[in-house]
Design goal:
about 10% strand, three-stranded antiparallel sheet, about 65% helix, Arc Repressor Mutant, subunit A, 3 strands, mainly alpha
Length: about 120
């Protein structure tokens, strides 16, 4: 995945944050690390890199300690291109599976994602 994302100057950890903000809209750093289940210092470092490379901006939130993360116009223009790359990556990952295996994989992943077998 990182090999494919490197063509866009990104790593998987950066893409997961960009994808999250693109999906849910502006978010606080706390919302990002809680949603992605990533430690706060890791998110802070990744956001700093994304800000330096022009993908995100940090704005003052309602609380002086709170920072709201937003995508830049640059990011909004690049996301469809990166999505194409990631869609192709996904297709390549399952290319060797039969149709029935793909259906089974989808069913199992959906079951895991929806927590049907809560532990």
């Amino acid at each position: 995945m990182n090999n494919r994302l490197s063509d866009h100057g990104l790593f998987a950890s950066q893409w997961s944050i960009i994808f999250c903000i693109d999906r849910f809209g502006p978010m606080t750093q706390t919302e990002i690390w809680k949603y992605l289940n990533i430690e706060a210092p890791t998110v802070t470092r990744t956001l700093s890199r994304l800000e330096r490379s022009g993908w995100i901006t940090r704005k003052q939130g309602t609380d002086k300690r709170e920072r709201v993360i937003e995508l830049t116009d640059y990011a909004s223009n690049k996301i469809p291109i990166v999505r194409e790359t990631m869609d192709q990556f996904d297709n390549d990952m399952v290319a060797s599976l039969t149709y029935d295996e793909k259906v089974q994989l989808y069913t199992l992943l959906t079951k895991l994602a929806t927590g049907e077998n809560n532990l």
